[in-house]
Each structure stands twice: as structure tokens, then as C-alpha cells.
Specification:
- The chain crosses the membrane at residues 20-44, 111-131, 137-161, 291-316.
- This is Type II secretion system F family protein.
- Residues 180-307 form the Type II secretion system protein GspF domain.
- InterPro entries: T2SS_GspF_dom.
- By secondary structure, this protein is mostly helical.
- The protein folds into two domains: 1-47 and 80-166, no CATH class; 168-276, Up-down Bundle (Receptor-associated Protein), CATH 1.20.81.
- It has 14 helices and no strands.
- Helix 6 (108-130) packs antiparallel against helix 7 (139-188), helix 7 (139-188) packs across helix 8 (193-203) and helix 9 packs antiparallel against helix 10 (228-239).
- It starts with a helix and ends with a helix.
């Protein structure tokens, strides 16, 4: 507190006025924080307000198998709904990124923007609380630390979602050739394409749960009346795999012209597996280049110390005797 008061006094120039400004800021912040969180918590605890929030988020009723939504989740939804981005194009791009990362709920965009807007404020508050522990700092350095903390809080959710998206797409890409092989076996045994997709989803539920869930969604869309080609196109959009768009096009042509779906799946499974092998070979070829930096910064200093160190000690001893 004394540190912040000293900063304000340095800016204002009058100790009495600085003390009044500091007390007014603390009182106003405390009142606003208590009133805001009190209204939000009381509103979410009210059965009527909670029911209205549940209807707004698209849940008409909760069954016994569904987990009840926590107050924190509803709070983030309301904050994101009021403070999130209003641009339709930006919202659509954000939703697509979240779907690729595995967040498919209707409120994922609102929760994402709420976290992205509240986390910088939290990081800024933590940095201000940590400033008295540091030695005397100038105003410019204090502002720089606050801006850096707010920037970290703003970028951290985006980086986390992007990393999760890349990891999920990588797992789906690695598992899809096996799913195509299983589809070939199912189709050649006499099953139609929707039944083959359902069977593959059941078989891969343990080993590849994410891909099994996506295939189960395809089967659910087909049962709801959506054409198979459109359901597969939705699969490509949800997973973010560009290679699946070619498969969707080939399967659509096979269904339209009556050609063998099994042959199409077999050919594309081989191509998909070849691409996976080529990607693994490419990563293996990059290992030599990536090992240059550890060799330079870790092994070479120790090598020079062992190889040249005794000679340097001998030279120093020789010159010392002279």
C-alpha cells in the first residue's frame, strides 16, 4: 500500500491529495467489486435467473445423465455474451478454432472471450500486488510490467487453444488411416457406409476416443436425415483435416455414380498411410538440423574444456615461472 501511495504521490506531487486519491480509488474499486459479484452470484443462485440462463444457452432441460452446469460456467457465459466480439466473421472463426480444439458446446465462444477478457485483469492485479516486493521502480518500469502482465493474460488463452487444436488434429491425422482400413473391411463384408462408420466408431471407442466420437456424430447426422456426403463434409469441417475433403469428394462421386465404395476407401487409405509415413520421414530428417543447437551450446563447451583446458593450464604455469 505504501508503495502504491508513493507512486501516486510522485505523479500528483501533493502527499495529501495523493492520499485522498488513493483512498477514493480503493473505496470505489471495493464497492464496484462487491456490488458486481454480489449481483452476479445472487442472480445465478436465483432459480428463475438460473433457468433463464440455461434456456439462453440452449438447454431446455437437464436429464439425469447430464452434469449440472456450475455457477462459474454460467458467470463466464454471461460475461462473454456481454463483452465478447460482436463481429460475425470473427465469432465464426473463433468458433471454428474452438471446434477444432474439441470445444463444441454452444457457449464455448462466450466462455473463451470471458476468459480472454478477465485473465488480463487478474494478471494486472497480481502484478500490482507483487510490485511492493520488488525494489524501488520507476513509473515507466511499473507501467511496462503491468502492460506485460496484461499482454500475457490476453495471449495465454489463444496460445493454449491453438496448441490444443494442433495436438488434436495431429492425433486425428495419425488415427484416420486405421479407421479407413476398418471401414474397408466393414464395407467389403456387406455393410453400408453408415453402418460401417457406426461399427468403426464402436471398435475405436477405447483406442481413439476422439475419432470415435467424431464418427459417431456422423452416424447421428445420417440417422437424423442428413445425406451421407453432407455428414462427411461436416466431419471434415469439425476435424480440420484438409485431407478429408478429398475423401468426401471421392465418396460423393462413388455414391452418385454407383462405383465401389470399398475400392475408393482402400485407395484413399493407402494414400493417407503414405502421407503419414512421409510426414514421419520428414520429421526424422529434421532431427540432424535440430541437434546442431544442443551440440553447440551443451557439448562443445565441455569438449573444449576437456581438450584444451590442460594445455591452457600448462601455458599459464610456464608463463608464471618466467
Amino acid at each position: 500500500m505504501d508503495y502504491l501511495l508513493g507512486l501516486i504521490s510522485g505523479v500528483v506531487g501533493n502527499p495529501e491529495l495523493a492520499r485522498l486519491v488513493f483512498l477514493a480509488a480503493v473505496a470505489l474499486s471495493s464497492v464496484l467489486a462487491v456490488v458486481t459479484f454480489g449481483m452476479l452470484i445472487m442472480g445465478l443462485q436465483s432459480p428463475v435467473q438460473r433457468r433463464l440462463a440455461m434456456i439462453k444457452r440452449g438447454h431446455e432441460s437437464l436429464t439425469a445423465n447430464q452434469r449440472p452446469v456450475s455457477n462459474l460456467h454460467l458467470l463466464l457465459e454471461q460475461v462473454g455474451r456481454h463483452m465478447g466480439s460482436g463481429e460475425e466473421r470473427k465469432t465464426s472463426a473463433t468458433r471454428q478454432t474452438l471446434i477444432h480444439a474439441g470445444y463444441r458446446s454452444a457457449s464455448a465462444v462466450q466462455v473463451y472471450w470471458a476468459v480472454r477478457l478477465l485473465l488480463p485483469l487478474l494478471m494486472l492485479a497480481l502484478s500490482l500486488l507483487a510490485l511492493p516486493m520488488l525494489p524501488k521502480l520507476s513509473i515507466a518500469l511499473v507501467l511496462l510490467i503491468g502492460a506485460a502482465a496484461a499482454g500475457v493474460g490476453w495471449l495465454a488463452p489463444a496460445i493454449f487453444v491453438e496448441r490444443r487444436k494442433e495436438a488434436r488434429i495431429g492425433r486425428l491425422r495419425a488415427a484416420f488411416p486405421d479407421a479407413l482400413d476398418l471401414m474397408v473391411v466393414c464395407v467389403e463384408s456387406g455393410l453400408a457406409l453408415p453402418q460401417a462408420i457406426e461399427r468403426v466408431a464402436e471398435e475405436m471407442a477405447v483406442s481413439q476416443s476422439e475419432l470415435a466420437e467424431e464418427l459417431a456424430l456422423v452416424n447421428a447426422e445420417v440417422r437424423a436425415g442428413i445425406p451421407s456426403a453432407q455428414a462427411l463434409k461436416h466431419l471434415a469441417d469439425r476435424t480440420g483435416l484438409e485431407d478429408l475433403r478429398g475423401l468426401v469428394s471421392l465418396l460423393s462421386q462413388s455414391i452418385r455414380f454407383g462405383t465401389s465404395v470399398a475400392d475408393t476407401l482402400r485407395i484413399y487409405a493407402e494414400e493417407f498411410r503414405d502421407r503419414r509415413t512421409q510426414a514421419a520421414e520428414e520429421r526424422a530428417a529434421k532431427i540432424g538440423t535440430k541437434l546442431v543447437f544442443p551440440l553447440i551450446f551443451c557439448l562443445w563447451p565441455s569438449f573444449f574444456l576437456v581438450a584444451i583446458g590442460p594445455a591452457i593450464i600448462g601455458v599459464f604455469k610456464a608463463f608464471g615461472k618466467m
